Amino acid sequence: DQQVKQNSPSLSVQEGRISILNCDYTNSMFDYFLWYKKYPAEGPTFLISISSIKDKNEDGRFTVFLNKSAKHLSLHIVPSQPGDSAVYFCAASGNTDKLIFGTGTRLQVFP
Amino acid sequence: DTGVSQDPRHKITKRGQNVTFRCDPISEHNRLYWYRQTLGQGPEFLTYFQNEAQLEKSRLLSDRFSAERPKGSFSTLEIQRTEQGDSAMYLCASSLTNWDTQYFGPGTRLTVL
């Protein structure tokens, strides 16, 4: 039972363009959502989060959008840079603070 | 103090052996979490601590797994009688308190031969 889903295993974007990574969830009890970036042989690095009382949160080049009615969130990276190439994980938490992760999307930003 | 540290970074062991991993959280972080990540999957929750108290354990944590945080600072995760299915990246994270952002360490990659 995959409660957090990232249906695109990979995404390729040209440098300078927008990257949009998507995430869907099924558990309506989730009220806090996060995005992590992971490089090979390293642990996940926190990027940005959003609580269910908001529908948008922005931090520099990164913006997360939450659509509660659709149980969908997305991460926008503008402009994309080669250093953004990594695996991106969506995560959610609800009545406990343990995180439930998606399976990840591998982003490749090419020149 | 720059972040969560884990030791060792890599461990290769033979099936049936016991292994122990250590995690040092960010200083003053009360919460400490263990996750496991296998190839092609996201991290999966194993257990977490509030100071020295273990608050929740996943069904993934069989009786061969035990975790401790004896003084509310570092934590250890022991796997007894390792099996090939235990091969994974074991990740530790910490947060200042509940509902705060969890910061992850670099992980310990376990290979069971």
Keywords summarizing the entry:
heterodimer, A: 111 residues, mainly beta, six-stranded mixed β-sheet, five-stranded antiparallel β-sheet, 11 strands, 0% helix, B: 113 residues, globular
Protein model, in words:
The complex is a heterodimer of chains A (111) and B (113). Chain A has 111 residues and is mostly beta strands. Chain A has no helices and 11 strands. In chain A, strands 2, 4, 5, 9, 10 and 11 form a 6-stranded mixed β-sheet that branches. A 5-stranded antiparallel β-sheet of chain A has the order 1-3-8-7-6, with no helix packed on it. Chain B is mostly beta strands and 113 residues long. Chain B contains no helices and 11 strands. The model of chain B has no long low-confidence stretch (mean pLDDT 93). In chain B, strands 2, 4, 5, 6, 9, 10 and 11 form a 7-stranded mixed β-sheet that branches. Chain B has a 4-stranded antiparallel β-sheet with strand order 1-3-8-7, with no helix packed on it. The interface between A and B is medium-sized, with 23 and 27 residues.
Distance between the termini of chain A: 38 Å
Beta strand % of chain B: over 45%
Strand content of chain A: over 45%
Number of discrete helical segments of chain B: 0
Helix content of chain A: under 10%
The largest contact between protein chains, plus residue counts on each side, is: A-B, 23 and 27 residues
Number of helices of chain A: 0
By oligomeric state, this entry counts as heterodimer
The helix/strand order of chain A is EEEEEEEEEEE
Strand elements of chain B, count: 11
Mean pLDDT of chain A: 95
SSE succession of chain B? EEEEEEEEEEE
Q: Largest beta sheet of chain A, briefly? A: 6 strands, mixed
Distance between the termini of chain B: 35 Å
Structure classification of chain A? mainly beta
Decide which structural class fits the backbone of chain B: mainly beta
The averaged pLDDT of chain B comes out at 93
Biggest beta sheet summary of chain B:
7 strands, mixed
Q: Give the low-pLDDT segments of chain A.
A: none
Q: Provide the gyration radius of chain A in Å.
A: 13 Å
